Amino acid sequence: MKTAYQTVSVEIRDDVAVLTIDSPPVNQFSPQMARDFSEAIESAFGTDAIKAIVITGAGKNFIAGADITQLQAVKNRDDIHEKALQGARFMNSIEAGPKPVVAAVNGNCLGGGLETAMACHYRVAARGVNLGQPEVQIGLIPGAGGTQRLPRLIGLPNAVEMITVGKPIKAELAYSRGLVDEVAAPEALIDTAIQAAKRFISGELNLKMRMTRNRTDRLPSAAEKKAFLDVAKMMAAQKAKGYIAPFKAIEAFEKGLSFNMEADIETEVALFCDCALTDVAKNLIGIFLNTRAAGKLPRIKGMEPAEIKTVAMLGGGVMGSGIVSLLLSGGFHAVLWDIGQDAIEKGLAAVRKTFAYPIKKKKMTPADVDRMIETQLTTTTEIEDLKGVDLVIEAVLEDMEIKQGIWKQLEGICGPDVIFATNTSALPITEMASILKDPGRMIGLHFFNPAHRMQLLEIICAEKTSDQTLATSVAFARAIRKIPIVVNDGPGFYVSRQLGGLFGGAVFLVADGVDGAVIEEAMVDFGMPMGPATLADLTGIDINYHVGKTFERRLGERYAVHPLTEVIYHTGCYGRKTGAGYFDYSGKKPVPNPTVENAIKAYLEKEGVAPKEMSWQEIVEVMLALAINEAALMMEQGICDRPQDMDLAMIYGTGFPPYRGGILRYADEWGLKHVYDKLLELEKRYGLRFKPAGLIKEMAESGKTFYQE
Amino acid sequence: MKEVVIAGYLRTAQSRSRPRDPARDWFCKMRGDELLAKLLPEIIKRTDIDAKEIDDFIVGCATAVGEQWAYGGRFPIFLANLPETIPAKFVDQQCGSAMACIQIGFMEIAQEFADIVLVGGYEHMTRIPMGGYTIDRGLLAPNLNLFTNPDHLHWDIMTALNMGLTAEKLFSQTDFTKEEMDQWGVRSHQLAARAQADGFFDGEILPIEAPQDDGTVMTVNRDQAVRQDATLEGMAELKPAFKKDGVITAGNSSPLNAGATAMILMSKDTAKKKGIQPLATIRSIGFAGVDPTIMGAGPVPASRMAIEKAGLQASDIDFWEINEAFCVVALNCIRELGIDPEKVNVMGGGTAIGHALGATGARLTGTLARILNEKGGRYGCANACVGGGQGVATIIEREVYDG
Q1: ipTM of the assembly?
Q2: The whole model's pTM is what?
Q3: How far is B325 from chain A (nearest CA, A)?
Q4: How many CA atoms are closer than 13 Å to the CA of A632, on its beta-carbon side?
């Protein structure tokens, strides 16, 4: 048989052809690879001396799926339908071919990779590898037979879960479910696969029976299918509101799972194309690609980050303990410093608590935690003990003098290359750094609470932060598995200020007579995890008030605190921590707090404002218009300039609904002209706060969008 | 010992199963337990008893793996929404499963531990195929010692597991000809087709609204495998199904089928009290083991036992239902017991009607009871060969029931 291909290497072992897909970097189904792969299969099928085929991958992946950057550019159905169909038919041809094909799953086997494996007649997986159909996570469904083959192999319930949620499973679980036939040590993988191939050749394994299309014993009856998918639809409606792919996947099960698998796969391909054409898919693909690219700034391109081994954590409070937890999990040595032994003990207890969840989920044992703390963590109350660290992260009291005092001290203790990072969420970092001989070493590392769970790390460059400091900080963020978003210093940095912009319209609406409860509903329906009142109760109405005052002081008249905000603040109900804010938390379920309700009512009466009906859509437009304006203002002010990073920051930092792509993606889809008109209208109604940013006006006039594609 | 009667009998039609082409099975989109669950409320209603009076539910299936697993027989109860107070047991005696259910129910009532027993059986041979498929998928895992350990090789388990090969072997030990088997097969189809045309089976088949693979719904009310156009010439052309130069073909053996059966047994006293007209009275039962490589010989000793226990002679039996797993099984039984062939499978046999393994025992017994009523016979014997080398038999008597 032909053995020379660009992306497939061929080794003949007796009468078995071992095809190794080698298409760097991730073994993607590139046009070249698809061509080579199908030629190699065809050649092996057509060569008499070859009796069976083993397929495996080089590197960390078995086979990765299609190139999703191409999907992002898809404009109409014809662009993809034929291609997708070809892919699906190629899988069919492997399965229905004349010779046994064994998949030797050497690494990640996701999407098109798993679909290929399932079209084979036998699957051997290396221990610990991941197998899954994660397409829904980027707004798609499997499009090469995944929805039809997976239920045949593992039954409908597990297949529905794997495909509608998209979470991969390990080889061991895949084995127990029947998705793979054997699990082997990585070094024995190919030999095991060849052994299986020989069992086909000897007749011990039957090719026909092993074709996935003939595995019908796990297909549901019509009644079962209906009953189960009705429930699945209901659950998806609850859990995947706003998304499209999970429902399309369910539709693929519903319309498929007949005994005519190839016809059902063509239905699947059509549904896949439906998904690929949606904005939701494009948004999610964008997020996926941008997440990979986050932190890769031109400014630090090619720079070698300094090696970080030991990290000092100043302060073991809520943020400090979460960060220590991250450091331990990331394999760093951590030194926890706090002012007294009591604080240290509290901090340690809080660190342990961060591992309660993985312990409960049996991902680790209490002994693992003990061992980590014993070997990776030291504690001290002596600042001199921080001499040997590579990075200091500070999360002490939000007081400029105290913080500066500590940094000044550390400047004398630590070497000149040690990075000084502050986790402040309110203080100007440029000012904080000004007392240092080398302000270039200082940077903001703004973690989100809970630090060990939230994926975002907002990295704030002060005026003089050096490129080296930034490059090392970005690398550090990746090392602790955070998504780094780099912005510049300014009040509230990016995320807090943007969130303020997104929810800041609420008080204007309430003061206009709109029911606060409807605003909550509208924002939750839009996809936010909670509405503005619920969030305010969580973060503290007093804290928000003081942040508002700071904005007013530092950013000027536009940010004047609304009189109604003053009224609510003066009720003394600050939220959950005082037992009541917008809502009263004394009962089992939060209920509207009469104190705040009455204060609002009195305000409206005094102002002569009548209750106002407003649709969810109208509310969302007011809220988003203000948010988009805030983003534009921040761009003008040089806080940030990368729309993709800004959108990611809101998605990972505040739970902005991913399927909407982000605030700026939303703006582009809405049209800047519409945004501008809306803002003009709102400025008239609500005043200066809504005055369109110059950038918005300019974009509306020139027809520009935030994203340049 | 109390006398036990068959108070009700109902079955689904038997579809023709095709594991390699599932869509052609009329029941391809229904599970066996769903078929059974359709029957249970209906037979209770038709027999005119209250479901709460049922003391036991005994259900049979030959391949109770995958979706045919029934949680000890409780799932059909749940699917039919019958009272939770009905206990259940699940019985596997392979092709004798449902007959074993009848036998156990018979003994429970005879010994007065129960008064009314619901019996069921099901098998779906498209959805859970026999043999190779299930073994290949790990659903069945026979002990490898049986295949490889010299201590066990004498069982010849490869033959014993392959029903077709056991039939070939049984044939080779007799002097029947292939033509005689084929002839019996043609007879079976013709009799069954005539019975269908006469509407005989309408009295025992509950029509089922069955979803089809193409999304349509079909009312399944007749046995799918019956061929009114079966001819000896056609049969002669069929290729051997199990071995080269073999004689066992698709024409002289039962097809693969899906179907379910249900039966209500009760004491004769209770039937009388309730004013229920029984189909027949159970007189005797038989079971026997034989060489597993000629399992088709099983009905002979099983029937002998039942006849002897009933104090009868074979010649006393007016009608026989001999399961035609293979035609040679019926021919062998006829010869060994000296039966008049005209008394055997008078409405056609398994070759045509089908043989949904776990459901068959009740199908044979129920149909036999109806034949006794239809034709005015007194004694009837239903028997079946059983994979693994067994036979089962049941003797019933149609009486004049007053009240």
Answers
A1: 0.81
A2: 0.85
A3: 24
A4: 27
